[in-house]
Target: YiaA/YiaB family inner membrane protein
Amino acid sequence: MTETPLKQQNTAAFYGQAVLSFGLALAAVTVGIIKLEASAWVRGFLGIAVLYLTTSAFTLAKVVRDRQEAGQIVSRVDQARLEKMLADHDPFQKL
Model:
């Protein structure tokens, strides 16, 4: 059985828009925390919270993607088995 790689579904424009949007949102939150009229402890806590939220979001996205890719691989194996069974089946063969 030949193994074909899974095709990338996203366009370069979509990828660029996602990266730009993430960078803009992170910059806006950072400026907001810096300009906040609060003590350094509060700003530091908010900064660490944003970093934790960002890394958690990346981890969640990776886990969801990995689960989806695993499901696609299992589905492809099942489909290959079905295609082999159908190719080997001769409806005119006597039982």
Notes: The chain has two helices and no strands. The radius of gyration is 25 Å. The CA atoms of residues 69 and 75 lie 10 Å apart. The chain has a mean pLDDT of 84.
